[in-house]
Amino acid sequence: MSDWxxxxxxxxxxxxxxxxxxxxxxVSEALKGVLYGFAVHGAATAALKTRMHMEHLFMLMTxxxxxxxxxxxxxxxxxILPYVVPNIKSWKExxxxxxxxxxxxxx
Amino acid sequence: MVGLAEFFARKPxxxxxxxxxxxxxxxxxxxAALSYHMAVNEGKKVLCFSTDPQASLSDIFERDLxxxxxxxxxxxxxVVEIDADKKIAEYQQEIKQKILDMYGLEELPxxxxxxxxxxxxxxxxxxxxTYDAMADLVASGEYDLYVFDxxxxxxxxxxxxxxxxxxxxxxxxxxxxxxxxxxxxxxATLKGGMQTEDMVLKELEEIRKKMTTFTELMTNSEKTxxxxxxxxxxxxxxxxxxxxxxFRELNIEMSGVVVNQIYPRDLLNKPDLPxxxxxxxxxxxxxxxxxxxxFGDLVAALIPMYDREPxxxxxxxxxxxDLMHSRRDLLWW
Amino acid sequence: MQVAFLETPSLWxxxxxxxxxxxxxxxxxxxxxHIWEVSEKRxxxxxxxxxxxxxxxxxxxxxxxxxxxxxxxxGPILGPFIAVAYGWLPALIWIVIGNxxxxxxxxxxxxxxxxRNEGRSMGPLVYNAIGERGRKILLAxxxxxxLIISAVFIYLVSLFxxxxxxxxxATIGIIITxxxxxxxxxxxxxxxxxxxxxxxxxxxxxxxxxxxxxxxxKNFFGPWSVQVWSIILAIILFVGAIVPLPxxxxxxxxxxxxxxxxxxxxxIFGALISPATGIKLIQPAFKGWYVENVGPIFPIxxxxxxxxAISGWHSxxxxxxxxxxxxxxxxxxxxxxxxxxxxxxxxxxALAAYMVVSPDLIAxxxxxxxxxxxxxxxxxxxxxxxxKAYLLTFFSIFLVIYAITVQALVTRYWRxxxxxxxxxxxxxxxxxxxxxxxxxxxxxIFALTGSWINLWIYFGGSNQLLAAxxxxxxxxxxxxxxxxxxxxxxxxxxxxxxxxxxxxxxxxTFGLSTFGIKKPLAKPPLTQYPGAAWALNALFFxxxxxxxxxxIYMSYALWNAYFKAKRGEVEAKAVSP
Lengths: 107, 333, 577
Fold this sequence. Notes:
By secondary structure, chain B is an alpha/beta fold. Chain B has helices spanning 4-10, 27-41, 56-61, 84-103, 110-118, 123-140, 158-190, 199-219, 234-249, 275-295, 312-324; strands at residues 16-20, 46-50, 70-74, 77-81, 145-149, 224-230, 256-262, 299-304.
């Protein structure tokens, strides 16, 4: 229902959603959007961010040796690999992105 | 009275027997002999498992078993000799195919392919593959008794340590993953969206279940027996002591020590005994007394030095007899 | 009941609306098209670095709502209260002019800075302009800034709880509503519309219970009542800060939204229909150039209406989140300028509430003035005298909830910054529990003097100084693009002068008491302990000097960078490590 908010990357081994249909911008859409932004967007972003930190931990543990941190024998991490293939790129990007204290503010 | 027969009389519920120790000391022989005895003499359905790349089960049973899957070499006696390298290669291929299928790709991203290929070089990969194969076999529950000839990584006990590490690791990621999924769920509810099933978590739970079941079995001293195979030599004594220490740390009960390649006592009475051999036997006496002193009641079986290599079913039957009921003339104390 | 149109706040609200319309449709549009030359075709960081977590495109409506919620706090509501001490006209002029030429310029332009600089936030943007030391000083500055905001907000909430009987019970009711909502949403995955309806109903019931119970009475805990309330609030905030976000803060924010929006709409509506309801404007338009205990109109007026005219806080929101989620460049104006001008409207409507209360309330520094004014404006169409008691509780809760939700965020930021700043042998100060505790205890100590107006001026001053820095930073980047930078440089210069002067004024004020020339600024019961009152004054004197020195350094470095950029001497620095 709340397709004004599109998160196009499946965060973890999930099927990609079909591309969201183009939608017309009605007044009610706009109002709903504003209300969503006002009431929920910050919380949703914060939740996603907290989740991202969890995911870091998770990815690091499962695929750490991809970055040169050998954490466990890769036998079982290979089992997980297929599901996280779409995340690897953004995970690495996030991990290596410059991060400043002012980036921590949102949420 | 020394001999494994006594041990099995005391513990009738044993399902798994592991022979550990350095390579070349008679682990494989002991495994084969025990398996033979249990299958042929006691009519149990037995699986004998080895991963030794030197393919010694093939030597013992005089058949090419390496990488051939489960083979019945005698009634009720099944033998499997894992080709870990081949298994790893197949596993990698399976993962690659899965990625291709899941995302409908023509070819793998270069980075992913390189990563998968690079894992073969990891020594730990070899261990995990072996371990996983063992877990799978035990989980199948098709056999009355599983006899594992542990590959010579360390003392073989590392496998158990790894089970614990892996289990703790899976616990941690499962937890992190669950927590991550919870936050995702929060974000999703806030957006009014639906939750999707999480395949990763499911997969993790499966791995974990497999591991905990296996580890529980392995650490249950009523169901699993660990025997260290050694020879009466200084190095072997030191190694066995170290292994005992490791067992203690892992809270695993070491069931006993199998001492192999013992010269019978009355050999010394032979007048024409070559001087070199006499010296050697005298040395051995010293070591055996040390073994007696250090391991005491843990000494579970004594196997003599044979005049020929233990090969073929006939010879194995003989070893089995010695393993189950050790000869008195091997008792040096 | 009919009164002359001009005797009501209505005209001024309409006038402000027209001015904001001009700012949005003419001035901002011109800047958008001719200076930034926005294009729908240029790829924004939200698409460039799309990761579904920090970077992802969000529709302009959602971002507008988000931006407005993040920037609207107590500033535009309570700021005008201090400003009205000079009469409502100077306050109105500054709110309107500030919004038209300074406020939206900062909010919009900082979004554009992030958009055009690969999604960088304030820290790296400052680093690129003036280097690592500037980034570090900004961090230190922000720490003081957060402490001061905390002191003001914690003190004000405590004051409201003390002054409005029943407001504490209503607050607890809303907190419980938040917990219920959280459980329903996350644990039972309840439908969001149903939960929303439930949240609104429970909020209204909470206000009703608070009104009916009207307990505990004022000064319930004796002379130190406000401080006792502060400690109670600190405990609530501490728990809120250490439990996971979805357990407390997130649902609480969600619940808080509805009284917040409702309150603003009611006041604006009340002010617009004041000719019909007969609520008259009874404050004098102008009272004087100097107000005892507040200070001279310049610079104090310009820092007192903190977020209502211009606020540095907004630049942090714009660069840390909004700029990373902007879908297309053309959305920057509706989101950045649109949200700020709406905030201007909020400030104007708050001002309207002060316009209609008796000058006596303002002169006595009665913080309840806003609540009284808002009740006056809205009671006529919401049930008249019968509903006054309810509305008083409602509008006090409106303030409390605004303050608590922002404060919960500020406490979190303090903790995050502490973890960032304190390293090595000081790392324990960044510990989750210790940092949260210090972030709550220090502000309570700060607020002991009870002279919240001075605290407010520090808050406004540091906040506006941050805005001055952000505007100078914008001017620097615009000059680097070889575009006309005056639109940001002129406001930046004005704000730099105003805020540094305001800090100097406060240093002077606290200096007088520190060096024994005047009695320390303090309110009962602290006045009974002159030693402690003096120590706190001296502390504020020192804090003022620290803020001033940090501010001078940052201003100097940024202006220096700006003039170099104008002369074309700037080479792009490497990206921050």
